Amino acid sequence: MAESQNKRDLAYARTKINFDVKDMTNFLHGGEANVEQRRYIIDLIAKDPVFNKDDWGWLNHTDAVKRGIAMSTRLAEIKMEHDLNDLDFATMMEAIDDTLPIVLHNGAFIPVITSQGTEEQIEKWIPPAEKYQIIGCYAQTELGHGSNLSQLETTATLVKETDEWEINSTSFTAAKWWIGGLGALCTHAVVQARIFIEGKDYGAHVFVVPLRSLDDHKPFPGIEIGDIGPKAYNGFNKMDNGFARFNKYRIPRENMLMRFSKVSKEGVYTKPPHAKLAYGSMVLLRSVLIKQMALYLSRAVTVSTRYLTVRRQFNNPTSRNDSDLNPGLETQVINYPMVQNRLFPMIAQSYALFAAGAVMMDMYIGLMTGLSSGNIGALAEVHAMSSALKSYCTTFAVAGVEESRKLMGGHGFSYFTGIAHLFASTVPSNTYEGDNYVLTQQMARYLLKEVKTARTNPDQVTPYSKYLLLGLNKSAFARSTCSVALPEDWLSPAVQLAAFEHRCARLAYELSDAVEQGGLDTANPKTWSDHNIECYRISHAHAQYVMVLWFIQAVRDASNPETDVERRAEPASIKVLERLSNLHALHTIQTNLVDFVEDGYFSPAQCQSLRAQVKNIVASLADEAVGLVDAFDHPDFLLNSALGATDGDAYKRLWDKAQSEPLNRREVCDGYEEYIRPLLKKHGEFKL
């Protein structure tokens, strides 16, 4: 059989790439050793039949959860058989491409105990957890409360006579809800509950709570457990998101995690040295999400880029076409400027997410290292940064996954693109681990404190808030304008960063002035909520600033001979990375232009030259697009896409996938005799 035009088109596109794809892959994943390890782990999963994806589209929730449990147990076995570490486990979860009941055991249960437990508690709980003799989850969210920890209704009342805690769901809405792993798999949970000692409320704390018997897996008396049912878009279908209600259930006092807060047998409460020390686990989960969004969005743009390269529609001439090579054929969809303008900025965003994910994880590791020695100096900033980036990155990544689907036209609506499943996996990230709108208040509050520091002790402003010093001289700041005179000036990182810094400083001071002039209090929700919209603006502005900054720094490091070899890249790769960095920065400005012009920082002429420069960069990346997505190094097993496979044979693969539909196993569909025939014959025979 002759090679399809689809395959020829994608193969030809790869001949036009002007950089070494392998070199770019090594840059993205932190070196060749990491790339090889990632491939090894994904291959382990791909070869194991329990992880086969062929029937996923037809599983109902009950069958999917059972499959998820089978996959979870096999995942644990592989981890132990191959002595894999936590990073390898995360790669296995990436390869599996679905959220499994066991994910929060490694992702939350163990980290929370490790970070908040005493040495004795760690010694008691972690060894059996690492050997999967117990399997845990993280139970915070309730039916009636999610973000508002202070109002959780689950209580832990100290019973001094027996040296126990009495865990109780004080109302119907106090039931723990949405807890991954709770519905069917887990034997234990770390539970957030409000402590009461002799009637006094000491706020939410964390407890290790046994849930099910290790002999027969039945819930212990005093606990009602179940699954909350299927989720939107059929997402998280294999995850047993569950509920739990406690009826005066007793656990030992020592089951309260006491690294920071402590309660003695006599009922003496010792508060932590810092009120937010327990935020470490939340910072971890939010930091991990940045890297996850890089992986998710990069998969979506990989599928759409490859498909749009092989998809041909209409004979409209474009500035970039292959009519000389393939006369008479329709135009490749990827050659239309509107398509490029929608697609290429998302490729740039994916690269920026890889850079941001690496920095955010470094910040988290630095934070936890400091906390282990009692240094809490970085806690406030890292908590605020992870909150702001979680909100911003998951927002645009989910939108990007959906935009990638829409770019593919009608075929994009097929489950077999792989993007439908991807969207269902990413969209809940906008609300779990902190609602994306509510979460922006964390960065706003942090920046308001930084504004006060800038006004009273400017030398103490943290590095990522240094832009606040620009606003100390109000009259000079009000007169400041963008320095761009020529279109090429936009390609200066200094010019780009200056624009983001000016915008952030203005929004931060405007919020601060409004709070002060209104006599408002950030701790008073009756007044603070009046400024939630402004909080959202400054939080996302700050997130965009550090995203641009970190991408610029990553590209600079890539060309620095003193940088670790794992973070370096060849000159040809750096040339393309610089264009991606410019596109990311300028496209972000363009899509938020009102923030840069409402105080006159940009002139109308500068706005016009900005748009022209974005258009030029987009056009300059056309030959590199396929190479840029190939560099993400997502194998076909992971993409699970008929339209985005490595060989480009989209139509043949889509046809073959459709043949696997169970309806096609019979020539006449089930239901014909019962429904269709009676309707056709209702008014007698009709002869064709």
Amount of helix: 40-55%
Strand residue content: 5-15%
State the major sheet.
6 strands, mixed
Supply Rg.
Answer: 27 Å
Short key terms for the protein model shown above:
acyl-CoA oxidase activity; three-stranded antiparallel beta sheet; 688 residues; 23 helices; FAD; six-stranded mixed beta sheet; Acyl-CoA_Oxase/DH_mid-dom_sf; globular; alpha+beta; flavoprotein; fatty acid binding
Secondary-structure blueprint:
Layout (H helix, E strand, L loop, with lengths): L4 H11 L5 H9 L2 H16 L13 H21 L4 H11 L6 H14 L2 H12 L5 E4 L14 E6 L4 E6 L6 E4 L8 E10 L2 E11 L12 E5 L14 E5 L2 E4 L9 E2 L5 E2 L9 H31 L26 H36 L6 H29 L11 H8 L13 H17 L17 H6 L13 H25 L7 H4 L3 H27 L12 H21 L1 H5 L6 H17 L4 H6 L5 H4 L10 H10 L12 H10 L7
Helix pairs in contact: 2-3, 3-5, 6-7, 8-9, 8-10, 9-10, 9-16, 9-17, 10-11, 10-12, 10-16, 12-14, 12-16, 14-16, 14-17, 16-17, 17-19
Can you give a write-up of this model?
With 688 residues, this protein is an alpha+beta fold. 51% of the residues lie in helices and 9% in strands. The protein has helices at residues 5-15, 21-29, 32-47, 61-81, 86-96, 103-116, 119-130, 280-310, 337-372, 379-407, 419-426, 440-456, 474-479, 493-517, 525-528, 532-558, 571-591, 593-597, 604-620, 625-630, 636-639, 650-659, 672-681, and strands spanning 136-139, 154-159, 164-169, 176-179, 188-197, 200-210, 223-227, 242-246, 249-252, 262-263, 269-270. The strands form 3 sheets. Strands 1, 2, 3, 5, 6 and 9 form a 6-stranded mixed β-sheet that branches. The protein has a 3-stranded antiparallel β-sheet with strand order 4-8-7, with no helix packed on it. A two-stranded antiparallel sheet has the order 10-11. A hairpin with a 2-residue loop joins β5 (188-197) and β6. The model has no long low-confidence stretch (mean pLDDT 93).
